[in-house]
Amino acid sequence: MAVDKKMKVLIVDDYRTMLRILRNLLRQLDFRNVEEATDGTEALQKLREGGYGLIISDWNMEPMTGIQLLRHVRGDEKMKRIPFIMVTAESKPENVVAAKQAGVSNYIVKPFNAETLRGKMASVLGEF
Amino acid sequence: MAGKRVDVARLLSELRNKYGDTVKVEEVAKVVGTLLATNTGEMAGVSRKIYTELEALNRYIQSAKAEISALRPDEVKDEFLPTATGELDAIIAATAEATNAIMDATEVIETVADALEGEQQDNLMNATTNIYEACGFQDITGQRITKVVNTLKEIEDKVDALVSAFGDKIDKVKVEKKSEAAVAPDDLSDADLLEGPQMNGEGISQDEIDRLLADFD
Description:
The structure holds two protein chains of two kinds. By secondary structure, chain A is of the alpha/beta class. Chain A has helices spanning 16-28, 40-48, 66-74, 93-102, 114-125; strands at residues 8-12, 34-37, 52-57, 84-88, 106-109. In chain A, strands 2-1-3-4-5 form a five-stranded parallel sheet, with helices on both faces. In chain A, α2 runs parallel beside α3 (66-74). Chain B has two domains: 2-70, no CATH class; 73-174. Chain B is 80% helix and 0% strand. Chain B has eight helices and no strands. The interface between A and B is medium-sized, with 17 and 20 residues.
């Protein structure tokens, strides 16, 4: 099945510049329906509105971190099937293991390039 | 001897009531001093050895107090650490501003690329993608600097505890240093003049510099 590029994507990061980078890279991949949040709490508020097809989130944020957001999402009946990609500078094996155990769909280490982002999105959404 | 032990116990009890478990170094020195004073006449054999050790410990504490006070931990806490933290915060702000300026320009280029076709469009779009990727440096450096700032805050807490423990002694060093400064010449050295770049609000603007220079004409 073809990937619907009109899907609503939620990007979460406490660095405004990173949100802008992600938004620009997603636009170049033709994903233009993008919403932003600066931490897990704000992300959850947006997710409760419904309709999201993908979450791309940083890990290191306050007050709610990316891994806490992931656990909330996976524990919520309405949200638990939304693909969740962690984009983070945390590159220790234990981080990756913890994220996997919490149900992450894929994991991108910063700094990353556009092709890595496209590849990981394709791995969870299907080729586009 | 039993009476003297009671005195020391009372002293310790008073200290605990006054300071809890965090006793000022000066008070510890007083206790050691009291121990030495109360036992002087009765030392022999092993007791004499203990006395010598306690005396050395007393000298060590006094010497450490003087050296640490001279290092001015209050200055480290009140001046150096906040300055370093402020400089690092300024780096984060400056790199964020520069990154956004780069992205403003890149988004304009991308709009122009949209109007082109074929290889020209592809080349420009690839270039803009590369710029967006490179802008990720701001996020990484920002996170690293934030870690350093947090470490500085931990050091600040520890220095704070040190300042509390040496309070009176440091106040004395402060007064001595102030009186030294009063007799020092007002002339700034070359090193004193190298403190830039100034933080926002600390320096003067180009217009103010121009006016200042014009005053010399």
